[in-house]
Amino acid sequence: MSAAPLVIGTRASALALWQARHVATLVSSQAGVPPVELRHISTQGDVQGEVPLWQLPGRAFFTREIDRALLAGTVDVAVHSLKDLPTRLEPGVTVAATLPRTDPRDALVSRSGAPLAELPSGARIGTSSLRRRAFLARVRPDLVLLELRGNVPTRLERMQRGDYEAIVLAAAGLARLELLQHVCEYLDPEVFPPAVAQGVIGVCARAADAATLRWLAALDDADARLASEAERSLLARLEGGCQIPLGALARVAKGKLTLMATVCTTDGTRALSARGDAAATREEASALGTRLAQELLERGAAELIGELRGVQAVEEP
Question: How far is C-alpha 203 from the geometric centre of its chain's CA atoms?
Fold first, then answer.
């Protein structure tokens, strides 16, 4: 009798499918692994594709249905862009692997090829992310910020047909879809910090499913795990019940972990930043994120977050 297949749950967008197939290839390369299958699952974020994300109540718009299928046993593995995954996971779900991080930066794509500083005043910029809107408003308050939903190819098509002068996308997604030729500028993370865990693929499984966890353990990248744990610990401490325009980036080098973070008001008029470092261990990574979040709160981030209460700052995948 053949072994039961290992079923991977994924959204059906081009980027989600690329990520799921990539994980399937990595898993299948191991000796003795059972057959691997993909199962497409529609999420709330897919169904309500025309509604601005910040107007939707709740969280986990692009992951909840997949993780619940995981808990129900319909799938064995869930593949996500880690930046979409809430800091509080569904009980019984664990992040079994974090794949090596791709470029975490945001990228500007413009019709004219102009970088952000050279876009004309009043240029229309498309993005559904409140984080991107906040930092765009901080750097270029003269631009017109418009909502933009849809998968990566759809967004590029809408810009090219003239709906926007420019759009901002994750460099990692463009790289995975072989669309980097469209990038006009990679935005400096010191000025335009990326979303928490941007560029990292997270692979989830049932916490009690030892057989599946065995196949996923080999995929885990230590540096991506440390960086994402620091950033997600920071976000978990800051959220306080609502999501916020927060950019953060952790890096690992020579046994040291560094983390920088900025929280910004949605109109870009006020921002608070912090940075720190720690030994590159999982315990220290989590502690570093919590410590920097506490520093930001003590310096006034709680007031900024209070103003944002009830506003959902969701990142579009």
Answer: 13
